[in-house]
């Protein structure tokens, strides 16, 4: 096939029919038609051009922690910015320029070493900076958008621009950045005592471990909270903790988590989500919105 040859010529890590279960924290998902980790910006542009020419949708993946990929696979090119150039951190004092492929855990260890405060609330989230920006990750009191100065993006025609924070439509678990490929962001942090930063990170990690269950694969919270009401609490009040369908179950510790018990399929997770949504609607007249990206 012509398209196959064009994608094969892109420099970087290029795979065909790559199982998504290898790239999602849920460990669920059939094969993506193409899986691409371009070597640099030039190769990224070539890849976008090819995708446009052959009308192949491009789906961007960060750490794969907020994605449910279809069992039957994806007629798409899954793009991951994981090459060295997409993992750079630069900057002095309290201003950092962080590339989108940097993991939050690496970013936080740098903050700990340099005594930079502001991002501690992200401790324990298995994501990349790009993913965290795209969904405006955070906790009820704080989102990553609070620290952003500007974001450098590429549109799907390969054009690069810098968006100032006020030009970005950050909302609760949303950013409007999905129409771009996020390249990097400038973050404004605060100088602080190294020990304090370390303690705050450890504290967030402790809270997260106590409230959530990371012993089985999951995608974190599957629904958004509703006007400040915890979706987990609402699902819990419907008595759904521990409810199992196929290889998936609603977590016994936090009801907004769905766990892959070993051989879960996307279908099982979707059925559990439908059930939770229907029960919460019936009991509280609230319609829960998914937080995770459902790729099918
Ligand atoms: N609660 C229950 N039952 C449950 C879950 C929670 O009664 O099954 C209660 C808790 O006891 C607590 C309240 O609900 O009193 C809030 O729970 P929690 O502190 O766990 O926070 P949340 O609102 O459920 C949000 C984020 C989490 C984030 C925590 C950190 C969303 C959708 N969820 O959860 O983010 O880790 O705050 O405080 O915004 C994620 O985005 O993937 C995620 C897990």
Written description of the protein model:
This protein has seven helices and 18 strands. The radius of gyration is 19 Å and the shape is globular. The two termini are 23 Å apart. The longest helix has 19 residues, at 266-284. It is an alpha+beta fold and 296 residues long. The protein folds into three domains: 2-84, 2-Layer Sandwich (Uridine Diphospho-n-acetylenolpyruvylglucosamine Reductase, domain 2), CATH 3.30.43; 88-210, Uridine Diphospho-n-acetylenolpyruvylglucosamine Reductase, domain 3; 213-295, Uridine Diphospho-n-acetylenolpyruvylglucosamine Reductase, domain 1 (Alpha-Beta Complex). Strands 6-7-13-11-12 form a five-stranded antiparallel sheet. It has a four-stranded mixed sheet with strand order 1-2-5-3. It has helices at 2-8, 41-53, 104-114, 129-134, 194-211, 231-237, 266-284; strands at residues 12-19, 31-38, 58-61, 67-69, 74-80, 89-90, 95-99, 116-117, 138-139, 142-143, 148-154, 160-164, 181-188, 190-191, 244-245, 248-250, 258-260, 293-295. The structure holds uridine-diphosphate-2(N-acetylglucosaminyl) butyric acid. Uridine-diphosphate-2(N-acetylglucosaminyl) butyric acid is lined by residues 139-140, 208, 211, 220-221, 224-225, 230-233, 236, 254-256, 291.
Itemize the secondary structure elements and their pairings.
Layout: H1 2-8, E1 12-19, E2 31-38, H2 41-53, E3 58-61, E4 67-69, E5 74-80, E6 89-90, E7 95-99, H3 104-114, E8 116-117, H4 129-134, E9 138-139, E10 142-143, E11 148-154, E12 160-164, E13 181-188, E14 190-191, H5 194-211, H6 231-237, E15 244-245, E16 248-250, E17 258-260, H7 266-284, E18 293-295
Parallel strand pairs: 2-5, 3-5, 4-18
Antiparallel strand pairs: 1-2, 6-7, 7-13, 8-14, 9-10, 11-12, 11-13, 15-16, 16-17
Helix pairs in contact: 3-5
The structure holds uridine-diphosphate-2(N-acetylglucosaminyl) butyric acid (EPU).
């Amino acid at each position: 096939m012509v398209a196959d040859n064009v994608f094969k010529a892109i420099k970087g890590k290029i795979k065909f029919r790559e199982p998504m279960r290898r790239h999602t924290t849920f460990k669920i998902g059939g094969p993506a038609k193409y899986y691409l980790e371009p070597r640099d910006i030039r190769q990224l542009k070539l890849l976008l051009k090819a995708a446009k020419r052959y009308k192949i949708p491009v789906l961007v993946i960060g750490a794969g922690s907020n994605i449910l990929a279809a069992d039957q696979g994806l007629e798409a090119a899954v793009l991951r910015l994981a090459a060295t150039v997409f993992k750079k951190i630069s900057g002095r004092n309290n201003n950092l320029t962080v590339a989108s492929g940097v993991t939050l855990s690496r970013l936080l260890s740098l903050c700990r070493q340099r005594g930079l405060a502001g991002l501690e609330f992200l401790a324990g989230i298995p994501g990349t900076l790009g993913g965290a920006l795209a969904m405006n990750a955070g906790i009820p009191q704080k989102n990553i958008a609070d620290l952003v100065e500007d974001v450098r993006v590429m549109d799907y025609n390969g054009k690069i621009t810098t968006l100032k924070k006020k030009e970005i439509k950050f909302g609760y678990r949303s950013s409007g950045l999905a129409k771009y490929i996020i390249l990097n962001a400038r973050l404004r942090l605060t100088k602080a005592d190294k020990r304090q930063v370390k303690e705050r990170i450890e504290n967030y990690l402790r809270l997260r471990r106590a409230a959530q269950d990371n012993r089985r694969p999951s995608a974190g919270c599957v629904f958004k909270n509703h006007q400040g009401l915890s979706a987990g609490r609402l699902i819990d009040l419907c008595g759904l903790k521990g409810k199992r369908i196929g290889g998936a179950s609603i977590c016994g510790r936090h009801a907004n988590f769905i766990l892959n018990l070993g051989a879960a399929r996307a279908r099982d997770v979707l059925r559990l989500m439908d059930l939770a949504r229907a029960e919460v609607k019936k009991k509280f007249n609230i319609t829960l919105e998914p937080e995770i990206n459902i790729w099918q």
